[in-house]
Specification:
about 300 residues, alpha/beta, Rossmann fold, UDP-galactose 4-epimerase, domain 1, seven-stranded parallel β-sheet, three-stranded mixed β-sheet, 12 helices
Length: about 300
């Protein structure tokens, strides 16, 4: 299968491209810069230059492929509305391009719906609907195309997709701990974050692309929920700083955007995903990756 991948040079994207190529697929990756293009080429994929604002180029990439994996996101945490707008627009154009073709469309989505009082499952529908909702309501928008001849497969990634080179949430928490000389957790730190190693996440994307029925929602969660306090204590031990409790509102101010997520209890299961596709995570746990030193030093930003 010839697969068009957005976000191909990113932390998750690099693992996905390598997994797809190892699985016998050919890949074309969207690259927004010379640095991104170099990464994509080194992985053995073709390059399609453009970014999430280049909707005509995204349409061209999708139209020329047998399937699409959409991982790119602006991740503008200072202006999330801009990220949400770009996400919805790109998902709209990919869905329109693949309509009535039967081709697969795997898209990254979020695995965090707070306030359920229980673990999230694949049967729980996202409440994000419409352009003004988180991620622009892209998951529900894409799912609406399952009835229009697109094999839509949202993959809800755990808030923490971890591994060497991770520059996401855990890396940001570690950076804040280095700057402040302490690693803080909210209240008693009993909140839970699902986690998955990026190699396991990449394998799930491939399995979903190859085998998941239209409308399947997949959960990339190897661990149902790692306590926020245990994360803080593990980071503190590696960084040589104390782990301390702090009010949730203080964390929200100290670590913009990410701090408020630390106070959310968002456990999630992946039982349905495992049964559907035979996915069995084998990578290191989050605490094992922290213990391995992957968050000791600042990670390089994505190309």
């Amino acid at each position: 299968m010839h697969v068009f991948v957005t976000g191909a040079s990113g932390f998750i994207g690099r693992a996905v491209v390598a997994e797809l190529i190892a699985g016998g697929h050919t890949v074309t990756g969207l690259a927004r810069s010379d640095a991104s293009a170099s990464v994509v080429k080194d992985l053995g994929a073709a390059v399609h230059r453009g970014d999430l604002d280049d909707l005509d180029l995204i349409r061209e990439g999708a139209d020329a492929a047998d399937g699409v994996v959409h991982l790119a996101n602006k991740h503008d945490w200072a202006h999330p509305e801009l990220s949400d707008q770009a996400e919805r627009a790109s998902v709209q154009v990919i869905s329109d391009t693949l309509a009535e073709s039967g081709r697969p469309f795997v898209l990254a989505s979020g695995l965090a719906i707070p306030g359920l009082g229980r673990a999230l499952t694949e049967r729980d529908l996202s409440p994000a609907v419409g352009p003004g909702s988180p991620r622009g309501g892209a998951e529900n928008l894409a799912l609406s195309y399952a009835a229009r001849g697109v094999r839509v497969v949202p993959v809800r990634f755990a808030p923490t997709v971890h591994g060497e080179g991770d520059h996401g949430f855990i890396s940001i928490v570690a950076r804040a701990a280095r700057q402040r000389g302490a690693c803080a957790y909210p209240g008693e730190g009993r909140q839970h974050w699902p986690a998955v190693h990026r190699s396991d996440a990449a394998r799930l994307v491939r399995l979903g692309l190859e085998n998941a029925p239209a409308g399947s929602i997949l959960h990339a969660a190897a661990e149902e929920g790692v306590s926020v306090r245990s994360i803080a204590e593990a980071l503190a031990g590696r960084l040589g700083v104390p782990a301390i409790s702090a009010p949730a509102e203080q964390l929200a101010g100290d670590i913009p955007f990410v701090g408020r997520f630390l106070s959310a209890d968002v456990p999630a299961t992946s039982t349905i995903t495992r049964d559907l596709l035979g996915w069995r995570p084998t990578g290191p746990t989050l605490l094992e990756d922290i213990a391995a030193g992957h968050y000791d030093q600042p990670s390089a930003s994505r190309p």
